[in-house]
Amino acid sequence: MRELIPWLRLILQRRGRLVVGAALLFATLTSGIALLALSGWFLTETALVGLLFAAGVQAYINLYVPGSGIRFFAVSRTVSRYLERLYNHNTVLRLLTDIRVALFNSMARAGHRERGQNTGAHWLSRLTADVDALDTVYLRVIAPATLAAFVTLLVVSLAWVIFNGLVALMLLSVLSLAFFTATLSVYRRTRSLSGQLSDRQERLRSEVIEHLEGFAELTAAGRTGKHSGRLMRHSLALSHQQAMIDGQVGWHGAAVQFLINLSAVIALWVGFDLFQQDRVSGPVLVLLPIVLLGLGEAYTMLPEAFGKLGGTISAARRLNEDIVPAPEHPSVAHPALHPEDKNQPLVATDISVGYPGYAPVLTHFSMRIQAGERLGIVGVSGCGKSSLADTFAGVISPLAGTLTTLPCAYLTQATVLFEDSVKANLLLGNPNATDAELWRVLELVDLAKRFAHEEDGLDTWLGNGGSRLSGGEGRRLVLARVLLSKAHLVILDEPFTGVDSVTRNHIVPQIDRWLESRAVISLGHGPEALLPSGRTLHLS
Amino acid sequence: MNSPAQDDVRHWLSDLGQTSRRWIQATVLAGVLAGLATIAQMALLAWLVFQGIVEKATVSSLTPAFFGLLGALVVRAVGQGLQARFAARCSEQVRRHARRQLHAHWQALGPVALSDTSAGALAREWLDHVEALHGYFARFLPQMTLATLIPLAILMLVFWLDWLAGVFLLLSAPLIPLFMALVGMGAEKVNQQHFEIISRLSGQFLDKIRGLTTLQLFGQTKQASELLYERSDQYRRITMKTLKVAFLSSAVLEFFASVAIAVIAIYIGFGLLGYITFGPSSELTLFSGLLILLLAPEFFQPLRTLSQHYHDRAAALGAGAEILARLNQPIPGCSGTPPTTLPDNSETLRVDDVSLNYTNGAAVFDHLSVTFKRGETVALTGPSGGGKSSLLHLLAGFIRPEDGAVSVFGQAPGTDAFGWLGQKGFWIQGSWADNLRLTCPGASDVAIEAALRQVGLADLLDSRDQGISSPIGEDGQGLSGGQARRLSLARIFLADHDLVLLDEPTAGLDATSEICVLEALHKLAKAGKTLIFSTHHQALLALADRIVVVNDGEVRDA
Question: Which of A28, A80, B122, B278 has the least C-beta neighbours within 10 A?
Fold first, then answer.
């Protein structure tokens, strides 16, 4: 469970809220128990006094206190339940924000290199599921388990006060067993099963996706039947595993309820002895078993929550692995070395390029670029163009050799747009840019008309990953974002992917003029994919 | 896809329930057993209290009753455990059935219709949406029945004990459907709101993580983090506003349950004191009074449980709507009459008087006829949207014509295995050998290596330690588009099919892959295979024996 510690620490920052939430949970539970117990006490008292009345014996009964107590608990149960749900829901939403922001911050501290290749859609959906598992760990696991333990101890103390130490000890042992069964025992029995569940599910997901992507080929080869048979088998194994967990949780839940009911029976059985020795009164004798029956409510949700804990812990483990501790100095963009000569924005001397841990894709590479120069780099896919661009931009460090660069504006090969307005997406390139400047760069990439026609103009919402734009439009928008930057060095990796040739021919001269005094390195699969370049390197 | 009506979804869910009706019944039965044992437990408890306190019976004389009580506890626990177990089995079976249905439908739709939807979305339907049916069948559906049966049993018992107390409970009974509607409305709203907010927040978060490198490049991570916080907090405040109202409905149920207990307790107390001079209260004893009190919370408990499971229903309806929409997706070409006789000619591929429409009704082909000979290399060319791909899909049997017949070497298309190369190559996580054995399970290692060399993947293979047993995605990058297409081509080499259909085999390839693909096709053509491909590529057109222009649904030789 050590995996949960960093997350618990984060959750505990909201200590005040957690305590208030727990107090409300406590109030709800005890109001419910008190309502029943007081009613039971009252009935027994009235029954006994009623018998005395019937026998003509003079007796006194205070109806006012228990009557108003019953009314009070009836109301307080409802009110505290409502407040508790509202308050704790609010807490969960706050924790959700805390966890996400903390996760984002620590990922942002680690550089691209430390994050490695973990950027696929697959990994992202996995990440969401893992974070979701942690969001509810307080409300499902920590709060109810603490509450159950605390109220159990209170009930045992009550037994000590109104009955005796021996009864208290007996109840303590039965209830401890119930607590153990509802928590640790369920967790131990389901730990490995529920820990594997999400891994298995993700494996099955990639198998299904592969099956669908290869559906035409598999159909042609007459192999879909065999292949889908295998998928069905794997999914059956998965549901069987889930059913096993459900079964375990169910039997443990039944055992817990049995033990709690058993404690009520024990209290009554032993209580009769004390009653007959006149050590406790009838109404008090009835009180304790009813309190114990009410205690069951504190335990009902525990087995299920602890049955899922194995999965939660492996989610935490995966997140802990993903978030490598931040390096000494953040390796975000911009390498440490700056050239002495401002007229040489980039000088590479005998560098090797590649991702750490893999064979370098380029070795002994040297080049320099002058201010205002246009350099093109051409090569087939897989020759290391993008790794070279990443290295120039400081996303990854050269494996060997020295590289000095000025801060640069870098258009990555992937088009990255955020679910936000056009304006917010552009401002990343230069947070101080005015609206006029934004329209100017949009004009450069031939997008100004496109958004001028939109009702919201620059505030047009782009949708998930820029889904409201075509591929070419998205590409031009991220290009505009780079053009907004004032950096003296501009690196463009496949700047015109998805942009049709008519538009490209139109915008290339405008962009070239805009970048006049700056050094531009453009990379692409062929000369037509570049800005007009004075010098072109061919990678092979 | 149009989303189906709620009624249809309910109907589909209930049909699905029919398949594991026995398990649902068993779940309900176990729940009833647990419920009856609970009633017995309470009755024995009340009786024991009455005997011990009022009748002053000795402990030893009560021992049999105590053992009876223990027995009731055991039965209750067994019932509860069995209920969980049966529920798990029921849901397991339902999920299997739903997955089978989807699978069968994929099969019927065929590759062309399926490719309209992303594989990720289809996989989500098959996995997550089917998973979302679990709670409905395992918890909600049995609890629906239990929430009627158990309160009814308790009500009857209470009426027998004291009809006035029964009336108190009954008074709340007409309110129960009202509660359920209220709770349902509240729960559905909370559920919907909650999931919407959670998915929006996840979206925001993922969006920022996805673009983290970009944010770092522009030095904007701090601002992004602040924005993330701000948006999350904003969503929280909006949600809390609606929750304030939504939680009220369940508070109403809670309130009535509490008030019913309080009223009954006070009524019985006063009755036992003899203060109530009308009705049946003079007959009340500590036994009947205590039993009624103990049963009152049990009367409401099944309803409270049901309200906790209400979101399962909403989730299942939501997921069911999406699954049903997929299952209702029409199978293309099914309206047409199946071809009656196939022209018996094993040496040609024939498209005979075929008509085919787009889903919007416009005609792709109107009574088209064309014949290709065995061993021919045919290039289909023409403008995009002219029907090249449709013709290939017809020959592959991926779509069926509305009218007319297609035969491949005298048989229905797709009867014999053939080679297919789509625009996207396809590879699975696993070794090179796994990937090739996917369509050709019996292939030898030597044959696999030879096939990979044929398509120019030898260099890549030689750079790996374990040759064809090394995993494909070893460098964490996987395959480029061109490499993936060559891998698919290697499968075709390995399988040695007579017919190979290729859709734009060189479109969008890098120079190396293009050369490899061209060489490979040349080899296949020389080996006497029947090759039919769509293309605009000059080098490919040069390779063909016959060039056919497909334009506007018309076919003519160039």
Answer: B278
Domains of chain B: 6-198+246-328 (1.20.1560.10), 348-557 (3.40.50.300)
Label the pairing between strands B348-357 and B363-373: antiparallel
Residue B1 has pLDDT above 60, yes or no: no
> Which range of residues forms the domain containing residue A471?
346-538
Q: What's the complex ipTM?
A: 0.85
As a whole number, mean pLDDT of residues B277-296 equals 89
The answer on A311 and A373 residing in a single domain is no
Q: Which residues contact A313 (CB under 8 A, 6 or more apart)?
A: A1, A3, A4, A191, A195
Closest residue to B126, CB basis, from A43, A208, A410 = A208
Q: How does pLDDT run across B6-64, given as a tens digit for each residue?
A: 889 999 999 998 988 999 999 999 999 999 999 999 999 999 999 999 888 888 899 99
Q: Quick one: three-class SS letters along A156-208? A: HHHHHHHCCHHHHHHHHHHHHHHHHHHHHHHHHHHHHHHHHHHHHHHHHHHHH
- Would you say A402 and A356 are in contact if contact means Cβ atoms under 8 Å apart? no
A74–B232 C-beta distance less than 8 A: no
Query: Which member of A35, A220, A223 has the closest CB to residue B419?
Result: A220
Question: How many helices (H) and strands (E) would you count in chain B?
Answer: 20, 9
pLDDT tens for each residue of B415-454: 888 999 887 778 888 888 888 888 888 888 899 988 888 8
Q: How many CA atoms lie within 13 A of B214 on its CB side?
A: 26
Are A445 and A480 in contact by the 8 Å Cβ rule? The answer is yes
Please, what's the b/e burial string for A145-171 (b: 16 or more CB within 10 A of its CB; e: otherwise)?
A: bebbeebbeebbebbbebbeeebbebb
R_g (Cα) of chain B, nearest Å: 35
- Optimal mutation site among A29, A77, A219, A426, interface B, most CBs of chain B within 10 A: A219
Tell me whether residues B207 and A89 touch, CB distance under 8 A. Answer: no
Phi-psi group of A373: left, alpha or beta (phi > 0 → left; psi -120 to 50 → alpha; rest → beta): beta
In one-letter notation, the amino acid at residue B288 is S
Q: Please check whether residue B251 is in contact with residue B187, taking contact to mean a CB–CB distance below 8 angstroms.
A: no
Integer angstrom CA distances of residue B306 from A80, A256, B81, B265:
21, 21, 18, 25
Q: Tell me how close the Cα of B140 comes to any Cα of chain A, in angstroms.
A: 15
d(Cα A158, Cα B216) in Å, to the nearest integer? Answer: 60
Nearest chain A alpha carbon to B120:
A209
Q: Mark whether A434 and A500 lie in a shared domain.
A: yes
